Task: inverse folding
C-alpha cells in the first residue's frame, strides 16, 4: 500500500469503510428477517438493504470528495511545495489558503519555508565572497588554458572524455559533435591510443609521443600522458589549423563516475540526457512536419554549455500562417535549411547513448520516428517525459503545461524564446533538473525507479 499515492490510499480506505458498513447492515437485516420468520417479509428487508447500501455508498462518496478536496489534495500540494523549496532552492512560496481546512498546518508550512529561506540565504552570504574568488580564479585559469594552441583532451580510465578545449573541439567536430562523457574512440582510432598506453605501463615514463589518426582520416601528432593506473590520461595533439577561441568544456567529477551494467539500476546522476523540442507546421505528427529542432546535453546533472544542436528544418511544404503566428518561423527562413531526414541523422548522432527528455514526449517522438523511416537509424533511446515527471512531483491533479511547471519551479522563460525549439528545450532542461533533485530526495535515485513511477501516470498523456 505504501507505493500508492495518498489520495488513492484514502479513496481505498473510504471504499473499505463503505463495504464494511454495507456488510454490517446486511447481516443485521438478515438476522432481523430470521427472527421475524415470515418468508413474505423478505422483500421488505431486501428493499431496506438496497436503500441502506446506496445511502452508505452515496454518503461515503460525498465525504470522500470533501476529504479529497480539503485534506488529501492540500497535503500533496504542501509536500510538493516543501520539496521544491528544499531540493531546488526555488523562490516560489506556498499559499497558505490552499490548506485553509487543515488548521495551523498551512501557516506552519509558510513559517518553515521562511525559516529555510533565511538559513539558506545566511549560509550563502557567508560563503559568497570565497565562492566568487574561487570562480574568478577558475575562469582566469580556463581562459589562459583555452588560449594554448594545442588540442587538449582529458580522458578517464574507461576512455570517456572529461575535458576538451576549443582546439580539441574543432578536431572532434571533424568527425561529429564534440561531447563530454563520450568515448574518445568515437573520434580517434582506438588501437593507436591503447597501444601507447600499454607501452607507458611497461616503461618508467608517464609521457610519450603519439601519432593518432582521427576517423576523419587525418593524423595528429603530440603527446599522451598517464596519471597512474586507473586514473586516466591526457592527449595533447597539435591541430592542423587553429580554431576560433571558444570556452573549455569539462567536468572533473566524471573521473570518478562508475558504469552500471543495467540501465534500470543506473543512478540518475550517472546518465547522459538529451533534452529536445520541435516546432512544427501543426499538431498532427502523421500529417504535419518539423520546421525547427533544438536540443542540449545534460551530463552529471548539469547542462553542458556549448553542447547543443539547433537548426531550422525545411518541411518541403508551405508553413501555415496559424503556425507561424505561434513560433514565428516563415517559409523564407527555412528555404535553405536542411530537410528533416538530414536533421534526424544529425540528432541521432548527437543523442547516441543518451536518455531522451521532452515535454509531452510522444508528440515529438512521433515526428522523429516518422522522419527516421526509410533511413538506417532508429530512435530506440530510453525516454522520459516532463509531463509525467511533473505528475510524480506535484500530483496528478496539478496542471502540467511547461509554463505551469516553470512557474512552480521559479524558472523564467524569456518571452522572445518561448515557442522556439531551443528556448523551450532549455526551459524543459532546467525544469527537468529541478524535478530530478526533488524526486531523488524522495528516494527515486535510479532510472528504473523513476521510470516505474512515471508509468503510473501515463493516462495523463492519453487524456
Result:
Amino acid at each position: 500500500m505504501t507505493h500508492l499515492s495518498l489520495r488513492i490510499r484514502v479513496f481505498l480506505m473510504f471504499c473499505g469503510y463503505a463495504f464494511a458498513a454495507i456488510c454490517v447492515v446486511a447481516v443485521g437485516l438478515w438476522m432481523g428477517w430470521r427472527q421475524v420468520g415470515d418468508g413474505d417479509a423478505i422483500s421488505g428487508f431486501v428493499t431496506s438493504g438496497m436503500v441502506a447500501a446506496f445511502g452508505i455508498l452515496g454518503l461515503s462518496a460525498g465525504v470522500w470528495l470533501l476529504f479529497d478536496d480539503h485534506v488529501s489534495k492540500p497535503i500533496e500540494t504542501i509536500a510538493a511545495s516543501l520539496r521544491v523549496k528544499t531540493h531546488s532552492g526555488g523562490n516560489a512560496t506556498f499559499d497558505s489558503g490552499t490548506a485553509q481546512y487543515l488548521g495551523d498546518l498551512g501557516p506552519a508550512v509558510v513559517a518553515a519555508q521562511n525559516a529555510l529561506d533565511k538559513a539558506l540565504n545566511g549560509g550563502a552570504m557567508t560563503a559568497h565572497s570565497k565562492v566568487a574568488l574561487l570562480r574568478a580564479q577558475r575562469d582566469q585559469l580556463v581562459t589562459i588554458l583555452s588560449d594554448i594552441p594545442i588540442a587538449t583532451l582529458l580522458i578517464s580510465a574507461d576512455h570517456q572524455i572529461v575535458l576538451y578545449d576549443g582546439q580539441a573541439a574543432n578536431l572532434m567536430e571533424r568527425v561529429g559533435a564534440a561531447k563530454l562523457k563520450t568515448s574518445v574512440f568515437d573520434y580517434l582510432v582506438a588501437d593507436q591510443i591503447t597501444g601507447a598506453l600499454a607501452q607507458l605501463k611497461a616503461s618508467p615514463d608517464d609521457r610519450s609521443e603519439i601519432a593518432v589518426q582521427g576517423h576523419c582520416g587525418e593524423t595528429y601528432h603530440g603527446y599522451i600522458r598517464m596519471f597512474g593506473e586507473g586514473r586516466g590520461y591526457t592527449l595533447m595533439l597539435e591541430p592542423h589549423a587553429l580554431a576560433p577561441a571558444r570556452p573549455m568544456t569539462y567536468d572533473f567529477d566524471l573521473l570518478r563516475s562508475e558504469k552500471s551494467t543495467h540501465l534500470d539500476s543506473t543512478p540518475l546522476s550517472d546518465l547522459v540526457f538529451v533534452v529536445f523540442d520541435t516546432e512544427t507546421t501543426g499538431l498532427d505528427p502523421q500529417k504535419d512536419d518539423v520546421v525547427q529542432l533544438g536540443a542540449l546535453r545534460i551530463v552529471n546533472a548539469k547542462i553542458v554549455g556549448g553542447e547543443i544542436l539547433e537548426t531550422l528544418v525545411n518541411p518541403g511544404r508551405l508553413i501555415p500562417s496559424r503556425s507561424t503566428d505561434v513560433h514565428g518561423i516563415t517559409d523564407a527562413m527555412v528555404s535553405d535549411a536542411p530537410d528533416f531526414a538530414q536533421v534526424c541523422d544529425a540528432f541521432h548522432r548527437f543523442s547516441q547513448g543518451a536518455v531522451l527528455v521532452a515535454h509531452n514526449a510522444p508528440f515529438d517522438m512521433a515526428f522523429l520516428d516518422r522522419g527516421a523511416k526509410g533511413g538506417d537509424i532508429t530512435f530506440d533511446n530510453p525516454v522520459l517525459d516532463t509531463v509525467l515527471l511533473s505528475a510524480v512531483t506535484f500530483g496528478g491533479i496539478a496542471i502540467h503545461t511547461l509554463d505551469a511547471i516553470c512557474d512552480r519551479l521559479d524558472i523564467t522563460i524569456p518571452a522572445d524564446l518561448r515557442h522556439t525549439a531551443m528556448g523551450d528545450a532549455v526551459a524543459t532542461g532546467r525544469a527537468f533538473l529541478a524535478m530530478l533533485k526533488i524526486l531523488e530526495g524522495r528516494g527515486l535515485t535510479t532510472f528504473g525507479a523513476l521510470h516505474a513511477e512515471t508509468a503510473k501516470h501515463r493516462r495523463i498523456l492519453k487524456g
Summary: The first strand starts at residue 151 and ends at 155. The chain has three domains: 6-112, 147-253, 261-462.
